[in-house]
Specification:
The complex is a heterodimer of chains A (256) and B (294).
Chain A lengths: L12 E6 L2 E6 L10 E5 L3 H20 L3 E5 L16 H19 L4 E6 L1 H10 L5 E7 L5 H16 L16 E2 L2 E2 L2 H8 L12 E5 L10 E5 L17 H13 L1
Parallel strand pairs in A: 3-4, 3-5, 5-6, 6-9, 9-10
Antiparallel strand pairs in A: 1-2, 2-4, 7-8
Chain B lengths: L3 E5 L5 E6 L6 E6 L12 H11 L3 E5 L16 H18 L4 E7 L1 H12 L3 E7 L16 H19 L3 H8 L5 H14 L8 H15 L3 E7 L4 H9 L15 E5 L9 H23 L1
Parallel strand pairs in B: 3-4, 3-5, 5-6, 6-7, 7-8
Antiparallel strand pairs in B: 1-2, 2-4
Helix pairs in contact in B: 1-9, 2-3, 4-6, 4-8
Classes of the chains: A alpha/beta (256), B alpha/beta (294).
Chain lengths: 256, 294
């Protein structure tokens, strides 16, 4: 006779405010001395909301493999202080540096891997690529062309408004003032439009993941084109966690 | 006063953020809107918490087990129990911090959670339900449970909505251009055909919810329902609240209130609509808070 016991996986997490930034630390399971740490850099606006579940799952899986993981909300997003109308790339870069410093000072982290999703990938590259101890980066659908991203956002907003029978609030990207509930100030839009990914760091191992081929290479960079990657395309209540993709990311992190 | 991160619940696994206030009388509990994490749709709960804190009213936004930042519950309690059990546990935690009374507020499934939790706890002084869909879901009614009751209250509401859509050219355009949830439409029509074209009896699930609502009202719990113009909840709440319409007897003094917000969708995606919702919620909560101190 087979006796079945419910399996309880004990996750040890610590939500906290680092200065005014809301963050969650996932402690490595069954290993008081973490192998390495992983910092997850979120996307922004509705993409943040829609990828939250998948990125939490990614953090949990990494913690099970013995990594210390940190997720942090940029100021003006999530639970962090401030308002999204004041969001800026410069602040977001500073926030990732704050997270980096926290990991080094409070958890004695010497080796860090950064996983950046969408704009989070661009911010992470800008802020952390040259920092000591950063072993590699995963760029999950980074923004290659900011104007194209805004065009996609505008399309999202149109698709949302159409079945409601509302008059379209924005006839063009230039007139777009909000996207899926998030206000886009002219300053924010300007920064997003200017966002470009033209080259990769030469010294850092990079795993790039995208739905479309990206013509970017580097001595230590590999680029993979995969499906079901754009998890922010679906509303949060129906969005699936991309298990295969998450495993792919973890396998790459493990090989570093 | 700054916000505080808390780990709540029986096992200390529920992740929440408390926006405290000096006055410990009242705390507003913000309940997950479906699978969205505790910041709420487009950060609505964060905005609400900060406005309330400026007004001297505390609130706590937090995640149910296995949603948002909270890990799965170790005892694997079924979902229909979890969404009542965990708000009760969180209220216990907050009571230990000195909060005496609570307003439960939730969107969609959060409204369900607010309603059912209030039935169990006398510390709840007000329930704010935003776009509730089927408050009888998963409940034991006439010996039927779960799926059988699911296709009642909500389906009635969808039928009412589809009837009105028959006269809207945009609705027909949506139908022809694929901007319609065909599965839902098919399920609703199938349910209606199965039940018969002519309505023969009042929906038992509606009556069941009305009875439970009356229990809350008898306890002097103040009930507010906010519905969006583009949401099926309008019809559902109208059906539920019909019982109290035009009642002027003293025994019906405490009536549930329905507010309709034009140009809004299920999750109040438009910023302007969300601003109006925030204004309505803050006004209601301030009134309840003031009535407590009287």
């Amino acid at each position: 006779m087979i006796s079945r016991q419910p399996i309880t996986v004990k996750e040890r997490i610590e939500p906290l405010f680092i200065q005014d930034l809301y963050a969650v630390v996932h402690y490595p399971q069954g290993n008081p001395q973490p192998k390495r740490a992983v910092l997850i850099a979120y996307p922004i606006a509705f993409e943040y909301e829609r990828s939250h579940k998948a990125l939490r799952q990614l953090a949990m899986q990494l913690a099970r493999r013995g990594y210390l993981v940190l997720r942090i909300d940029y100021r003006g997003t999530g639970d962090s202080a401030g308002d999204f109308t004041n969001w800026s790339m410069a602040h977001a870069e500073q926030d990732l540096l704050t997270a980096y410093d926290y990991l080094r000072q409070h958890h004695d982290v010497q080796q860090l891997i950064v996983i950046g999703v969408r704009l989070g990938a661009n911010i992470a590259l800008q802020a952390l690529a040259d920092q000591p101890g950063v072993l590699g980066m995963v760029l999950w659908s980074p923004i290659v062309d900011g104007e194209q991203m805004l065009q996609t956002w505008w399309q999202h907003q149109r698709d949302f408004e159409k079945p409601l029978g509302y008059v379209l609030s924005a006839a063009s990207v230039a007139a777009l003032q909000e996207v899926m509930g998030y206000e886009l100030t002219p300053e924010c839009k300007q920064q997003l439009a200017a966002c470009r990914l033209t080259k990769l760091p030469t010294q850092l191992p990079i795993l790039g993941l995208s739905a479309q081929p990206v013509a970017l290479t580097g001595p230590f960079a590999s680029w993979q084109v995969i499906g079901n990657i754009d998890i922010w395309q679906q509303a949060s209540d129906v969005a699936m966690v991309p298990a295969v993709l998450i495993n792919q990311v973890i396998n790459w992190v493990e090989r570093l | 006063m700054k916000e505080q991160v808390l780990q709540l619940g029986q096992y200390g696994t529920l992740v929440g953020v408390l926006a405290p206030s000096d006055s410990k009388c009242l705390c507003v509990l913000l309940l997950n809107a479906g699978l969205l994490h505790h910041v709420g749709p487009a950060g609505l709960y964060v905005q609400l918490a900060r406005v309330l804190q400026q007004q001297g009213i505390a609130s706590c936004r937090w995640d149910l087990s296995a949603i948002g930042d909270s890990p799965a519950r170790p005892d694997h309690l079924p979902i229909f129990q979890t969404i009542v059990q965990e708000p009760l546990e969180v209220m216990n935690n907050l009571s230990a911090k000195g909060y005496e009374k609570f307003i439960l507020l939730g969107i969609c499934s959060g409204a369900y959670s607010a309603f059912h939790t209030a039935l169990w706890d006398a510390r709840v002084m007000s329930v704010v339900m935003i776009n509730p869909e089927d408050l009888a879901l998963g409940q034991q009614i006439d010996g039927a449970r779960g799926r059988q009751t699911e296709a009642t209250g909500a389906s009635e509401a969808w039928i009412a909505r589809y009837k009105r859509s028959l006269l809207r050219p945009q609705a027909w355009l949506n139908l022809l251009t694929g901007n319609v949830d065909y599965d839902l439409l098919w399920d609703t029509l199938r349910w209606r055909l199965k039940r018969g074209i002519k309505k023969t009896r009042r929906d038992s699930s509606i009556i069941w919810v009305q009875q439970r609502l009356q229990e809350l009202l008898d306890r002097q719990v103040q009930v507010l329902c906010v519905t969006s113009q583009a949401d099926v909840a309008i019809y559902y709440v109208q059906m539920l609240f019909a019982k109290w319409q035009n009642k002027t007897d003293p025994e019906y003094q405490n009536k549930p209130v329905q507010l309709l917000l034009n140009n809004t969708d299920h999750l109040f995606t438009y910023i302007e609509g969300r601003r109006r919702l925030l204004a309505v919620l803050v006004k209601w909560i301030k009134e309840k808070s003031a009535s407590m101190s009287d």
